[in-house]
Amino acid sequence: MNHASLHINAARGVCILLLLLPLTRAVAQVSEPFQGHAYKVEQVVSGLGVPWGMVVLPDGNILLTERSGVLKHLTPTSGQVKSIAAVPKVMAEGQGGLLDIALAPDYNKSGLLYFTYSKNVKGEGATALARARLAGERLEQWQDLIVTQSRSDTGRHYGSRIAFDERGHLYFSVGDRGERDNAQDRTNHAGTILRLNRDGTVPGDNPFVDDDDSLPEIWSFGHRNPQGLAYDNVHGRLWSIEHGPRGGDEINLIQAGKNYGWPVISYGKEYWGPFDVGEGTHRRGMEQPVKVYVPSIAPGSLMVYQGRAFPKWQGLLFAGALKLQHLNVITLDAQGKAVFESRLLEGMNKRIRALCQSPEGWIYLSTDTGEIYVIKPV
Predict the structure, then answer these.
(1) Could you say which architecture CATH assigns to the domain 37-377?
(2) Where along the chain do its domains lie?
(3) How many other C-beta atoms are found inside a 10 Å radius of the C-beta of residue 52?
(4) CA distance linking residue 301 with residue 307, whole number of Å
(5) Is the Cα dihedral 225, 375, 132, 198 positive or negative?
(6) In 166-297, which ranges are continuous DSSP H helix?
(7) Among 275, 267, 217, 272, which Cα is nearest to 243's?
(8) What is the pTM of this model?
(9) Residue pLDDT, tens place only, 176-197
(10) Integer Rg of the chain from CA
């Protein structure tokens, strides 16, 4: 081989190497300081499907679900993505598919991963909760903990986020499945937030456990489509954010046995005309939201920031906005009232779907166009 060929091949090799470099090194944006912290946004990877849920493993790598039914392992430092085998078949139709993922609070000991997904039940989709363990590049010991009584042929409003409290309980949300009256009917799980023990059994102190006209797993009801759920371990509070119809997205402080009103009361309008949904915004015995969004931002996730990377952000609520394409941040007072709203990353013009926090306190976010970004201190 002559010298000219060597130089050409070397140049080609450099070009290929540059193409393979992780995008975190190529795309970074330093943003204006927010609440006392300057931060930068880096792209970790692109070209994914629709990453619906994410968790950061103890080693810093990420597991992410794609709605199509694929579970992937991402190494953020290199951008390498691998598919995980032995994921059971999901009903990936409409808004359904492989949805949320969460690490058990004792993951270092138990190795348990929790999932929500849409399961085919006699040709209709139902929100289901399962758990499994990761063994190398495959899942093992998959176990359905509950297939909720929420099946519908609508393909809409699965809800489906997971949260844990500090007392051994698991919460997860189920949308009204596109059938409004479900949310006021406690003989099904649609339009509710459920509370279970981590093994899927029902806690004896659930609010409707002794009510023959209610399903015992129900913790709260009257929800439309809660796609964000987060537990604040510092204050012992469970937060939910849910889609309204046309306007009327809500942040709610979830309490045992409470009725959050849908579809009897709402701040949203009918899709077919400028008319209020239900009978108004208030009714005795139905809870008021902590925060209402009019027009809708279309919230797809919720996180209580509790990391060390941005100490002044601790206790803030972060939500990914799909329709209005930004990162929504809510400041709460000591009583849990929403006192201020901020909108970050509006210039990205991305539908922000999932959020998660790394052990360092960095914030990872996914977009419906198949990218993962990370927010770090400058």
Answers:
(1) 6 Propeller (2.120)
(2) 37-377
(3) 27
(4) 18
(5) negative
(6) none
(7) 267
(8) 0.92
(9) 999 999 999 999 999 999 999 9
(10) 21
